Amino acid sequence: MNRKFKMSLNQKGQVFVTLLFFVIIGVTIISAETIVLFTNILSGSTEEQGANAYYVAESGIEEALLRLNRNPGYAGGVLTVGQGNAATQVGNGIITATGTYAGTIKKIEVQIVNNDGALRIVSWKEI
Predict the structure, then answer these.
(1) pLDDT tens digits, one per residue of 24-66
(2) Is residue 5 assigned to a domain?
(3) What's the pTM?
(4) What's the chain's average pLDDT?
(5) Containing structural domain, residue 111
(6) Is the N or C terminus of the chain more exposed, i.e. has fewer CB atoms within 10 Å?
(7) How many structural domains does the chain have?
(8) Residue 39: what pLDDT?
(9) CATH of the domain at 67
(10) What does the DSSP assignment read for the chain?
């Protein structure tokens, strides 16, 4: 017995609707995964820029400590570190450095005491 399977027009429509349903689900899942991946990439980039801005601010603090050690009258300045800038201010035993890198800003404040020409760091914190 040789039977041929014939699909009616109604069955062809059901197959098409089922196929369309699975394609829509697949496209939705792939789109959602793409959005999550893109968001994670942006988040990682922002975190890296923040870390770089912090390190630029630390460099500004280190530069200010070096200059204060050489010249107790040093009042601050601007230091270029790679692609970032550190603006330092010195006054009343407090050094403040603002690190800027790719639009991200981080600030560090260091409190120091001068004991007969020897600088001692009392506190070091991000503000």
Answers:
(1) 999 999 999 999 998 888 777 888 999 999 999 999 999 999 9
(2) no
(3) 0.71
(4) 91
(5) 10-126
(6) N
(7) 1
(8) 85
(9) 3.30.1300
(10) --------HHHHHHHHHHHHHHHHHHHHHHHHHHHHHHHHHHHHHHHHHHHHHHHHHHHHHHHHHHHHHH-TT--EEEEEETTEEEEEEEETTEEEEEEEETTEEEEEEEEEEEETTEEEEEEEEE-
Residue 10 scores a pLDDT above 90: no
Residue 2 lies inside a defined structural domain of this protein: no
**Residue 82 main-chain phi, psi, to 5 deg:** 60, -120
Residue 44's pLDDT is 73
Residue 124 phi/psi, 5° resolution?
Answer: -145, 110
Position 35 in a domain: yes
In sequence order, the 6+-apart residues with CB closer than 8 A to the CB of 60 are 79, 81, 86, 87, 88, 97, 98, 99, 108
In the chain, the N- to C-terminal Cα span, in Å, equals 86
The encoded tokens of residue 89 equal 């201010």
